Amino acid sequence: MTIERLNELKELLNKYNYEYYVQDQPTVSDQEYDALMDELIHIEKAHPEWRTPDSPSQRIGGEVLEGFTKVTHSVPMMSLADIFNEDEVRDFDERVTSVIGDTDYVVELKLDGLSVSLIYENGTLVRAATRGNGTIGEDITHNVKTIKSIPLKIPFDGPLEVRGEIIMPKASLEKLNKARRENGEPEFANCRNAAAGSVRQLDSKVAARRGLDAYLYHVPQPDQIGAKTHEECLLKMKELGFKVNPHIKKVHNINEVWAYIEEAATYRASLPYDIDGIVIKVNDLADQRRLGFTAKVPKWAIAYKFPAEEVVTKLKDIIFTIGRTGQITPNAVLNPVRVAGSIVQRATLHNEDNVKRKDIRVGDDVVIRKAGDVIPEVVRSLKERRTGNERPFEMIKTCPTCGQPLVRKANEAAYYCVNEDCPSKIMEKLIHFASREAMNIDGLGEKIIEQFFNLGYIKSIADIYRIHEHEQEIMDIEGFGRKSMDHLMDSIEKSKQNSLEKLLFGLGIRNVGAKVADLLASQFKTLDALFEANIPQLTKIPTIGETIAQSVVDYRNNSKNRALIQELKDLGLNMTYLKDTSVEESYFTGKKCVVTGTLSMMSRKEVQEWLKSHGASVASSVSKKTDLVIYGENPGSKYDKAVSLGVTTMDEEAFKEASGL
Fold it and tell me: Which of 134, 145, 379, 499 counts the highest number of beta carbons within 10 A?
């Protein structure tokens, strides 16, 4: 038990912390790490005079404060001005270039967390503070020391301040809220609230358990590190051991800025943490100084904010709709509100169990969410705003269209109308069949189908291909003349030549979505061959399980369905898979692959498409059936799971060599 051994342990544990929490490339097991930490704590207990502020043991928490000390920032922590669309992005560029001419920008993900200032003296972390009002913040050093991605010691002499964002990863929030539910405590609404609440704990042991993380992105006094550009600041921070976000990029003009924003919007939901926008900064620090500041914000940086994904509005009523499978869905009728760029007046409540679990009532103020193209949903009600006049939810017992009793199937949360002649079910099946993702019959949209159905012109899928029998009656409908009729007829005729997967998806077989339809069609090539297959033959296909196989067999065994297929054959619809299924043989042929992390040679999607064209199947998650995980930088949990399951992994360089790219 010597001071030399203590220093050796500190050096090792700091190294392992950096590898695990910053590089995401651990070199020792959890058991080995824990053993070294126990040894360090044992030595420090025996010799408290040897314990230093930069010791890894300080990360486990234990310091309890009576209150937070105020901290005055030597350089104000200013916020950024917000912009919300492409025109405003280009306006920002015009303001910048009118002063300094053409310039490079650095674009960064706008992390949704809590801003933090870190002060180091001769390489040791001595203070961490919140932004506060920009001039005065709060000392949160005791909690920041528990965040393992923030170094307690860096190889740097003299003073240094760096700033960044403390975040709570989505996985940490899920784990935290699960524990709070089990303890009867209220859940955190989102990652940002959870991060803010965690760093403002007086007891650092609480913060230590919360799974916080941090990314650093700013040096307020860049002369401290001799940097000339913001990019150099980021590289220097990375060299010093700080965690810098891998998605930061230098671009050369505003067109590249906007391309970055559009790309980030596509992968935003898949990130392991929340972001709410993109930060755009002039790269050259001398140009930043020339541009200067307004009273509140810098002129050389701005924050593009993604359209709001969660907003609050009033739930006026709950109505029930029926889908093509007969499933009854409760839907919220809302005061109109803009969400993710569009006005929303309805939102799904999913099913009875969901509404009752969330205790959503008519008259509540509710939070609604819309991510990308996902149907808006009610996330939660704001119970604290209730007046007592709200009306509890009641599930209906009969179909809102045909009046038949509803049935709740075993092991399902949904209720169904099982009446095969229910008008709403038939209409929804027709709408699905003609939709763009299915048979793509242009001119036969939802409203037209509803009109033709009510007039008796289309009562089944086969009737679509006999619509010419009602040509004159249709042309007598106001607004539906010769040109519209000819266009509709051409579109219907063209749909007969669709490849099999389009027809298969359009038939609306339960559990057979567009991807499954394409997989089944490519395997069996004809509808007859598919319908001759039994369950064991179907489940031999990767990703086709018992549930999907049973749905296909049940559909085939229904006499009405067999009669419909024969009608469609007689009407001239193609029943064959028409895509080119030839693939180039490769090392990857026949392998089930997962692609994860950030790749430099091409995007993940491009790698996935390449793999498919060379005979591999591509999955989104890792399991025991996975043959290969191809990974780039920051591969995250998928890589970890592959290692734990013993699945073969391949980094980007190895992939290049094996693929010949």
Answer: 145
